Structures are given as structure tokens and as C-alpha cells.
Amino acid sequence: MTTIKLHNTKTRQKEVFEPLDPQNVRMYVCGPTVYDRAHLGNARPVVVFDILFRLLRKVYGADHVTYARNFTDVDDKINARAAESGRPIGDITAETTQWFLDDMGELGALEPTHMPRATQYIPQMVAMIEDLIGKGHAYAAEGHVLFSVESWPQGYGKLSGRSIDDMIAGARVEVAPYKKNPMDFVLWKPSSDDLPGWDSPWGRGRPGWHIECSAMSLDLLGESFDIHGGGNDLMFPHHENEVAQSCCAHGEDSFAQVWMHNEMLQVEGKKMSKSLGNFFTVRDLLDQGYPGEVIRMVFLSTHYRKPMDWTDKKAREAQATLRKWRALTAGIEPAPNAAAAVLEALSDDLNTAGAVAELHKLATSGDAAELLASARMMGLLTDELGGWAAGPDVDLSEFEAQLFAARQAAMESKDFAEVDRLKTAFVDAGLEVRMSKTGVELVPGPDFDADKLEEL
Ligand code: AMP
Ligand code: ZN
Q1: Ligand 1: does its nearest atom lie under 6 Å from the Cβ of 157?
Q2: In the β-sheet with 270-271, what is the strand arrangement from edge to edge?
Q3: With pLDDT > 90 as the criterion, what percentage of the chain qualifies?
């Protein structure tokens, strides 16, 4: 059997992956809060853990892997969105959930086995909070229930590598008077009449953010499971708090055995995030004509533990490569198995960049059947994602480079005759010419005629 190695945040080491039960390999990944379109950064963990899901299915069998990813549909950001738009919360969360599934589907992500919503798990959360109070790890105060970090000094902070004292020193937030320790976090909080709320032993209220993942993973995967994933921005406080809740309820060795964190997608060196306002959505990119398969390929070209920059140049290169590979594999039956080298790269802590390099080798050596099988294992070159390439299979990158070079020359010489000649010829051939400061893109229209490009 293929040996999979994964970097475990818990031990800060790459380890051989040994599932608790090879008959049922279990993975949980924190999903989106549903109040808006997913931005491109949100798609990174989706694609990363989709690759892991596919790899686990390949190695352990499709029926022996359970993958749960939640939707956070109770959250103050959602409440705020409802208040400002005047729309019912349920409409907003239902619409955004569907957008998320549609957009991620266009990136070739398989749907997880379970996609629980927080609002469906309120009784389980209440039960878990009662359990934590009973075990002396949580306390009720002024309609709130708080987790007491001092009740678990040996464990709290271990995952993210901080001490409780450092955390207190680093926290600049105003401390609520009902907290015994400033780092104590909310399990339950009171809701006013205009906010979503559920009856509970502590009055009408709603859960804090962290408890949902502990309650849902318990219900769907059990007290202990194999892998827990998410972006590294979630390591503290979200994941630290999940660990505290679950391990205090079910034992120090329970909960996730392997923790995996993807690095951030960046724009100009800064994390892409809604709060920084430097984001664009997956839908924006799709609408601009970037095929989902191209976006997926760009993601796979960087290892998940490295920060990655989205650039137009990477997207154009990925598109040219995919166009070439699709032409090479057109009408070919995939080999029965993915190439061993591709499987090996993916098994080495999801070395997708290495796997893509192997795909390039297969393409160069002309092994189309193996290229197809291997690419499909990574969710590329599938029929579903191929719509964008349905047109005639020609490589336009040379022509794009030709026009770009002509334009650079014309900027110097101020003579645009060659640029105009090329543009006219491309438009004549049925291409849409998109020029930006950084590049040229030729997009085949419905009347595209490749033969007309021959004289150029
Ligand atoms: P959120 O809706 O902000 O809780 O994020 C949902 C998922 O997207 C989490 O797993 C985050 O870690 C992840 N995420 C958010 N921003 C980025 C980013 N810029 N790059 C990579 N992952 C991100
Ligand atoms: Zn979570």
C-alpha cells in the first residue's frame, strides 16, 4: 500500500500517516461562514483538502473515507449582513451556501461526504457545553458560558505553540467582566429578541463560533478521528479552542490525530481577506473568463504550506499548458492507473507542485494515456471542467507573445503599424484581443478560424 506522509502541526513534523481505522479514514475541514461569495483565498483550503480527499480515496478505497466540512450559518457577520440588507438570515445563508457549492464545483472540488450546518447541531452543542460544565472545564456567567483555559493548563496553547501568559500579554481586547481569565472563550452567549436564538439551560442564546466544529465532528466522525484541516489563520484561536473543548470532554488523546494547515493566498504580499478589502471572489475570476480548471491548476502549482500569490501570468501559463494537454489527450482512453511518480509526489505531504512537474514530463514523453489518468487523479483534464477548451485545439500562446512583443517595440518606436496589423488579423480570425499592461490574451470566439492564423 502507498505510504502517505503528512506534516502534522501538532508535532511540527512530517509523519507517516496511519489511520485509526483504515476501513474508515476520517477528515474534518473548517468550512466557510456563509454571508458572502467565497474569495479566492477561501478556495485554497477547498482545493488542497480536495486533493487529500482524492488521495485517501485512491489509497484506502472510495468507500473507506469520510470527509466532513461545515457551513457556519450562525455568526454575527451574518446577523450584520441581514440587518443592513433587510433580508431574512435564512435567505442569505441559503443563497451563499449554494453559491459556495457552485463556485467550488467549478474548481473541480468533490463534495465532502457530510456538509453539516451549525444551525442543525444546536442540541448537540448544548449537550457538549453541559458536559464541559459538569467536568469543571466551563462556567456560566451572566447568560454566557465560558470555557476556562486554566482548567486545562497542560494542553491549552500547545497546538499553536503559545503559553497562556503570552496570550494574555498579546491580547489587546477589552476583557469582559464576567470572564475569570481574559483568555476564557465563549461557548454560549445570550441573544436579544432581534437576533437568532435557541432556548438553553442558560436562557435564550446562540453558540460561540468554536463549539460547532467540536460538536459536529463528534457526531459525524466520533471522539477521535484522523485529520483536521483548515487555513493557518484558524490555528489560533479557533483550532486551539476546538482542541480544548473536545479533549476536555473526551480525553487528552482524543480528537484529531493529524492537524494540517494551508498557508495563505496573498495579494501583494498580504493575506487576501475580507477585512483587508484586498480580495476578489472566485466568481469574479470565473466571470472574467478564467476557467475553473485554470484556477485549480494555479493552486496546485504551489505547495500548500507555502504562501502563494495569484498572478495573471501564472493563470495564462496554466491555461496554455492545459490547452496543450487537452489537445494531447483528446480522444484517448486514460491508463488504468495514475503514474507512480505522481502518486508518490502527492503522498509526500501533498507535493502538488512536484506532481504537476511529473505531468509535464508525461506530456513531453508523449505518454498521453498516463498523463490523462494522472491528471484526473488530481481533478484536472476531466470532462466536467473541459467546457472552456471545447473550441478548436490550437495553441495561441505564440501569437499572444508575438503581439505582446510588437506592442513593447511600438512603445519605443511609436510606430504601431505592426500592432494594428496583428490585431486586425486576429480579429479577422475570430479572436477577441484582450490587452493589459502585463500581457495579451487571445480568446477564441464562436467564429474562430485557426486556418486564418497560418499566414502570420
Ligand atoms: P472564513 O470564512 O474566513 O472562516 O474562511 C474559510 C476558510 O478559508 C478557512 O479554512 C480559512 O483558513 C481559509 N482562508 C481564509 N482566507 C484565506 C487566504 N487568504 N488564503 C488561504 N486560505 C484562507
Ligand atoms: Zn472549525
Answers
A1: no
A2: 270-271, 265-267, 308-309
A3: 84
